[in-house]
Write a structure and sequence with these properties.
- It is a single chain.
- By secondary structure, the protein is mostly beta strands.
- The chain has a single domain, classed as Lipocalin (Beta Barrel).
- The protein is built from two helices and eleven strands, in the order αβαββββββββββ.
- Strands 2-6-5-4-3 form a five-stranded antiparallel sheet, with no helix packed on it. A four-stranded antiparallel sheet has the order 7-8-9-10, with no helix packed on it. The chain has a two-stranded antiparallel ribbon with strand order 1-11.
- It is elongated.
- The N and C termini lie far apart (about 60 Å).
- About 20% of the residues are buried.
Length: about 160
């Protein structure tokens, strides 16, 4: 009888241990996505007075102008006719922007997922959005390599530290 009890006890413990699953929790980003409604996102590009950059990124110099990216915020525009003393002349607010290329006075800017073409006139100190190609780029990835949960009619323009 004792042998049968021991056998049953071993059988039950073996069967029950195979039912228990030890899975590691899914890794989670330590950053939170910053979303902007698609309609707000597409109408967010503005020319503003010059202001200091918070997180400087890439620099693009063409002719007498220098464009300094304020990562995911926009571009500082400088008069660069005297490289030893650049003078801030404006700020192009463009949420989600990290890079620019320029050809024939048209700025081609990645605005999060979109490729946007902008004509910037120094003479009138004005900008005109000339074209937008939606979803030309993949969604922004967090600094630690995660992709945000897609939300309908919203675009990730940045990531903030959630700690």
């Amino acid at each position: 009888m004792n042998k049968i009890m021991i056998f049953l006890l071993l059988a039950v413990s073996t069967l029950s241990s195979s039912c228990i699953s030890f899975t590691e929790p899914e890794p989670k980003s330590s950053f939170k996505p910053v979303y902007l409604k698609r309609s707000t996102f597409e109408n967010s590009i503005q020319l503003e007075p010059a202001k200091p950059s918070v997180n400087s990124g890439k620099i693009y110099i063409i002719d007498q102008l220098m464009y300094l990216n304020d990562v995911n915020k926009g571009f500082q525009v400088f008069n660069y006719s005297n490289p030893t003393n650049p003078i801030a002349i404006g700020y192009i607010k463009i949420p989600g922007a990290t890079d620019v290329a320029i050809r024939n006075n048209i700025l081609y800017i990645n605005q999060a997922t979109d490729l946007v073409s902008i004509n910037y006139s120094v003479l009138t100190n004005s900008i005109t959005v000339t074209n937008r190609i939606k979803n030309a780029f993949p969604p922004k990835i967090s600094p630690d390599g995660f992709t945000a949960k897609a939300k309908e009619n919203q675009v990730v323009i940045d990531w903030t530290n959630s700690n």
